[in-house]
Structure prediction request, 761 residues.
Amino acid sequence: MLPLDELKLLDSKIDDAADLSDLKPIYDRLAEIGRHNPSDFEVQVAVADTRQRVIDRGVQLRRGRGPMALDEPPPRPTRVVSLKGDEPPAPPPVKKKKDADARGWLGIIALVSIAWLAVFVALVQVARNRNMPAPGPTPPQASKAEPGTIPVDITTIPPGAAIQLNGETRCKSDCRLNLQPGNYQVTATLDGFDPGATGVTVAAGNPIVVRMTLTSQTQTVRLFTDLEGGNVVLDGKGVGELQEGQLVLDRVANGKHAVRVSGKNGDAAFAFEGDSGKMPVISGPVAVTNVMAVVVTSLGTRARVVSSSAAPVKVALNGQPKGEAAGEGLDIKDVPPGAQTLTVGEGKDERKLVVTFGPMPTVTAFLKSDVSTGTLVVSTGEDDVTVWVNGREYRRKTRRGELRVQTVGPAAVHVAKPGFQTEPEQRVEVKKGEEVKVAFRLKPLPKLASLQIRNGVPGTQIFIEDRAAGRIGPDGTLSAASLTPGEHAIEARRDGFITRRILRTLREGETLVLHGADIALQSATGSIHFVVWPPDAAITYRRADETQTHTAREATIRLEPGSYIFTAKAQNYLERSERATVVAGESRNVELALDRESRLPPPERPTRAASAVDWSGWTKQGNAYVRRGGNRVTVRSGPLNGTITFTANLRKGGGLFRGGKLRWFVEQGDGVSVFELDKKKFVSRGPDGTRSKQHAAEEEDRSYTIQVEVTPERIVHRMRVGDSWVTLDSQANHAVPDAKFGFVIPSSDEIAVSDLHYAPR
Prediction:
């Protein structure tokens, strides 16, 4: 999917978000799109606009408002830009005391304030030193001011947040950027805190201070067990029952908490403490009965693994050993985001668990009893995805981007969600006590368009944005569906022809229709048609500037432009060679009529005079003869028992798009047959009636190459289409010794005829 199309899709989901957790994956995907398209200005602007929409929607959700009206103007930035989270309530008013008491209390408050101020300054300095970017190359904007730039100071509470400018990471707060005048989107992200963002307008001569107060996130507690039912108690209060061994608690406030899980075949209890912007900490041991427990706390790239085992247990992440978890647990750094495989224990006590890591403070507890089952973790990144396991639809759909299914043995998994592309099935083996992950990356279906080609040249390949869409079929048509709307480059390709590339706009839900003329190709080669006597003569050819010869195996061949020598040989006949020039896009006849050797009687052939073409009244223009008007014009008289080949072009006469027609005739005795050709059909008007046939000829230069085969029995018409001769009509004939062939040219018409040749039978 194109970045702009995906951004439109993400934008459409913003107003449907019911809480902040629905906005988080949208915000993360926006960051990815921005990173992957750093040099695309249009994409960067769209990312910034969409990110601001996410932030506005998040503010509305926190305030309990509905969607913002489209015509509601955004707040105008000031020289000091401040984005604050939830502020603590103001202290209650102090009741009036006696003056002496008031002065005493004021003195104490002053001393305490001074002390707290000193501590605060020291803490700020320590935080700045701790969050200072690592030594190395820094962006020019952060190192020194270039001419015309304006300093922009960016501070966050707490410091150390990653600062993005129009989707590009520039520094860690607190920092200064020297920017050119213009509009910017400033975003701050820090693990354990909701993202902060604001728009900034930088103007010449006006330094800016951007201040953002980030709001700390609450804890998420996830319980995954293989227990048969069970209740969950948080801080002495029941919070729900296990559903298929699972329960997720959102928005658990900072502070100390105690969790107890009681099931039919086991129970467990543990305590943890959460603090603003910090990874939760397990306090005390994990108490269990008839189960093995592993509790994982995480925040960003950091995690800690705590086991209920009295002895140290080995821990590995994605197959890489990380150490042993004992006592207070094992700390793991540089944890990759997303669903990862955590291995705890070894041998018969080994357990493979699937843990999902992210920027929110999370407690994930795994409680495993010795039952004959395992867990299949289906990760999709999307909610409400339907999951099939071994051909059966599972009763629940994904939540928070995943689904956990208790099963054991082989598992064939496929998923589906309306509006998303179908993903191939995946197969895994789930062992007892083990968790196995299968990940699907669902891609949204675009709002599709389609393409249809009519009256095209069969065999022509069609490409859309360099991706093959198919070949035009024998009926001259091609249909391509499921195309992304927008402007696309459509290419027509065929061997021996110059590729044609056109730009067209595909619209949602519509079918774009192209006709043969829209994708007509210009030949990259020229064609040579051999008129040979005797018919079984062998023909060879070579380029005039080369010695290597080639055999012509068909009556018509295509060659690259250039000068060629063609040679015909036959037993008991004299060899004959002819030179001809091949021109790209043109078709030419090469006559190779051989004479018998002198010791043999000559063949009975029509005299050249009888076969001569009369061009009187025509004007020679290049290789063509041009004539205007004259009605019925005869160009050849005499015996007619063979094939007439010609190329004709209607230059004037209404035009092919306004009913213009090419006309020619064959006259034998008192019978005259007239033939008509326009851009759509061929019409025969002869003694045995009138017939018509649709055709799909190339309309390059409105020229047509025609063969008229006349025998005592039949008159057969063929038309050149691509590399083939297509039969247009066949009618009965009653030949007489003398005949005429010519063209019907009304007074207002003008035609050009080239390569006219008569080959006797």
